[in-house]
Every structure is written in C-alpha cells, then in structure tokens.
Write a structure and sequence with these properties.
about 140 residues; mainly alpha; Multidrug-efflux Transporter Regulator, Chain: A, Domain 2; DNA binding; MerR-type_HTH_dom; transcription
C-alpha cells in the first residue's frame, strides 16, 4: 500500500508518517518507481506509536516498543526495554501528582486563611466602581 492509504488506515497523516520515517521509527522498502511500499505490519506499528502517544509517551519513548514489534513479538510491550519505559513514565507521573498535591494543599490553606478574614470587595483607585443591581436597571 502507498503512504496515503497507510495514513488513512492508521488514522494519521502522511506528514506524520514521513516524520516517523525521518526519525527512524518507520521504514519501508521502495518500489521500482520510488514509492514506499507499506504492509499490514506498518498499520500495526503506526497504531502502536499513536496509542502510546495517546497515553502520554513521547515519540522517543516509543522506540523500544517499535523495536519489540520489529523483532517479531506479538505486542510492543513484550520486551524488557518497553516495560522500563512504562515504569519510568509512571514514576514521572507519580512525582508530578505529588507535586500537584502539594500545590493544591498550599492553595487550600491560603484560601481558608483568606476566607477566615472575611474579604471585602476591592475598588482600585482611579477605576469606576462596579455597577450595583439598581444602577444597571
């Protein structure tokens, strides 16, 4: 199949496929006329790349999965290198969640402190006061 059909079947663009090729993730033999010739294995490979990116992996993170499929394994995560990518990415996500939890706790404390002081509306000097309900009618 040609690149346009591969793009359509995989749910991506020819531009993305050419980029994957430039990054060494996608390779295909060329016919006598110079066109790339893709097979079913390429549909599966591109699908794997897109699925992994959808769950948060970078294009570079997909390399072990692509290599695993190219080696003939049933799935891209049948190899130890792929499992290491999952573990590393999960550790990164856990660290971010911890950091976000700390940020949230700080914001909750600041809000509670501010609300305890019963904040009043503020008027900035030199600006028009906000209209009240009677003036807007």
């Amino acid at each position: 199949m040609r690149i346009g059909e591969l793009a359509r079947r995989a749910g991506t663009t020819t531009r993305a496929l050419r980029f994957y090729e430039s990054q060494g993730l996608l390779t295909a033999p060329r016919a006598a006329n110079g066109y790339r010739e893709y097979g079913e294995e390429h549909v599966r490979l591109v699908g794997e790349i897109l699925t992994l990116q959808a769950v948060g992996l970078s294009l570079d993170d997909t390399r072990p999965f692509v290599g695993c499929l190219r080696a003939g394994h049933e799935t891209g995560d049948s190899c130890a290198d792929s499992i290491e990518v999952y573990e590393r990415k999960l550790a990164e996500v856990d660290a971010l969640l911890t950091q976000l939890g700390e940020v949230r706790s700080g914001l909750v404390a600041k809000l509670a402190s501010a609300l305890a002081r019963r904040p009043l509306p503020c008027v900035v000097p030199g600006s028009a006061p906000p209209p009240n309900e009677q003036e807007s009618r």
